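#lab-general

N.A. 3:47 PM
ok so I finally got the sequence cleaned up, no stray characters, all 228 residues accounted for. can someone with queue access submit it? mine expired

B.Y. 3:52 PM
send it over

N.A. 3:53 PM
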Amino acid sequence: MIKKPIVIVEDEPDIVELMTIHLEKAGFAVKSFSGGAGFLRFIEKTEPALVVLDLMLPDIDGLEICKTLRRHETLAAVPIIMVTAKGEEMDKVLGLELGADDYMAKPFSPKELVARVKALLRRHGLLTQEPRKIEIGGMLTLDLTKYEVTLNGSRIELTSTEFKILELLSSKKGWVFSRDKILNYLWGDEKSVVDRTVDVHIRHLREKLGDAAQYIKNIRGVGYKLEE
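B.Y. 4:20 PM
back already:
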């Protein structure tokens, strides 16, 4: 996760608290200001990763702060999400024209805010994709970011179909997936294969998994599940 703080410039304490809780829960460092003056003093010494900026502040207009950031020699590229109680289209257009990257009208979902923050940080190259891994039985690991499978630390070479089957089964451990559901996951409406094709891929997958093959269970007449 990034080391620079997400800065909230907002004068309503309840909203600040709500945003802070959700952003910190998502792993971000958060700094907040109830007015523009304190924020402008802060950025003289510290560069934020992203600014969540309210349009209606008690001292300095949010639009002026936005213009100040965009004219700043080193902070001009800092992502800005403008937040305001105003929902009129002209406010949104003006904010975006002055350099805001995104715009949210109150009330809004804190989860949506976090999603937009992450999207903006990724777009600016400030947030790399977090590794997504699934551990199975203490011996098998699926790295969904790198599309790799390791058995007791050693990499196993799987075909894309074998990997997708293992990913599906491990996504809901203990759930039974019918052959038809597996086929739909693999090929969707374009499938032109028979149910027994799944059995062939499962057999090849088990052969490659060695001792970990025991986790893939065949439910006779139904399909397959992964159970530790």
